[in-house]
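Repro case for the chain-ordering regression, as requested:
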Amino acid sequence: MQTGSLSSEQVQACANLPASTTEVRPWAVVLAAGFGTRMVAATGRPKQFLEYDGAPLYWRSALTFSRVSRVSGLVFVFPAHCLEEEKQRLCQLDAGSTLGLPWLAVAGGELRQDSVNNALAVLPPPCRHVLVHDAARPFASTALINRVCDALSKGAPGVIPGVAVNDTIKIVTGGTVAQTLDRSTLSAVQTPQGFALTPLREAHTRAKAEGWTVTDDAALLERCGTPVRVVEGEAANAKLTTPEDLRMLESPQNFPLPCSGFGYDVHRFGPGRPLKLGGVLMPGSMEVVAHSDGDVLLHALMDAILGCACAGDIGQHFPDTSAVFDNADSAVLLDDVLRITAEAGVRLVQVDLTIITQKPKISPQRGSIQTNVARLLSLPQNRVNVKATTEEGLGFTGAGQGIKAVAMVTGLRC
Ligand code: MG
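-- result from build under test --
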């Protein structure tokens, strides 16, 4: 048996599960031992090892299984010649126990069913259900996995996802149609396929003894006369087969994901810096206590932008213990924040700012603040909103002791 990150203690822990439990807690088998000739001819390597989101494609399925709480562990099946290499790669990918599950890695066999059989042979003894999944279907959802598990929980010995067939299917012999099948009874079958382990092992034993060759595990149960239940599959759970299918791998990288950040800042009124909001000097003699220029609105905005980029806060980037930032112009610091944000691949889309203070009155300067912040961010004015409110005389702003600001920033991460 080849073991990956599964320690002997973990195997023991699995073995100590009460044998009487009726809860379905399957192990999942991720089949990554195939050699799709069309894809290899086009890309130079089997599809399950294509890079996707910074990891081999099979890792995507592993992550999905790891998010299903009742999945107990994983068995990866790799071609024998690269088993050790992939085990090392798995150890790197799973550093810090990303999966949060025990896992094993085994060598595949000549046929798909041989690979499954090798995986079944290493499952810990108390395991009574298994999910068999093709790594070439990287987009199976947790909802689908749960659907298969639910049917297993109700006692089905075999469960497969199926989707309705939209094309008319004909049996063709020697280039001539021999028969048109009734489409309403047809189902395109996917993985993960779920099984009670005992009938699946028995079916594999018979297949070996009697020389059956099949393309999925459900077919083995069918030949043994064991009923196989069909649950709703997913159109998105497509199998990558041809080089054209690689387009399915492109969209996540090219499609920007929305992100957002929140910022909050407070400054006390007192002798120090003249009050500036959004880079606009407020008329009058009001001052704030501050290490930098004390622009409470730009400080909240910078924290929100850093939040959007998952890049910490302004205290980390511009510590108020550093002399460098003494009376620092917040607009200059904002430039640095925008550089950090751009490097993180985040493009700002919209900001919503609120100033909370009893005094001074903000409305006369609201337009100037909006214009200046839009300029600093290189955003159109209709993407920058500035609001102001009081706290009805309550709290420290109500008492006129200080001023606060909050900011919400929306961005797109490319
Ligand atoms: Mg501040």
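Ordering looks correct now. The longest helix spans residues 197-210.
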